[in-house]
Model the fold of this input.
Amino acid sequence: MVARRTTPRTRNNGRGMERASEAGETLKKMCAAYDDEITRFYAGDSFRAYEFFGCHYIGEADAHLFAVWAPNARSVRVAGDFNGWGEAAEPMETYRGIHVALIPGLKDGDAYKYSLEGVDGTSYFKADPFAFHAECPPGTASRVCTTGGYTWNDAAYLASRGKTEARESPVAIYEVNLASWRKFGTVPESESGPRYPDYREIADALA
Done:
């Protein structure tokens, strides 16, 4: 999707400038906590980049931290349901070559994309490559998603796994794309496309 280039919002009063400065310092502080992982990312040795990139809720700031690596972009913004996808799109700052933004007031399920301004001045909407949740087709936006709060119930399995020599045990690997494996009913007439099953619905059929 191609979007027209828009002009960043400006703050032209003393109180607004003060708030912007405070927000900028908070953003730098949040990013600095990931300096070691960012260094490993640039070295090509990062195994936990997902903990910084993408969209994460930061309780200390009561806001969501967005981070995306787009080295060839002139500028990047966060556009979504929460700002109208237009001129109010949130401009991102640059931290160690990474575009970052701290946005309050978001909720799980809010759709968003990055609006990247290319070298030719044209802006393009791009999904978040580190998103934890996304729209089902035909939608292509990423969604705000809190990853914590799930209670795992696999303690017994984890305990037994350590007692097994995996390289000498039988294993069966089966990969399936749930979206293309089987259609699962229909969606309401107001929507388009097939209804995608969740893991609980598909479990019996797969097992």
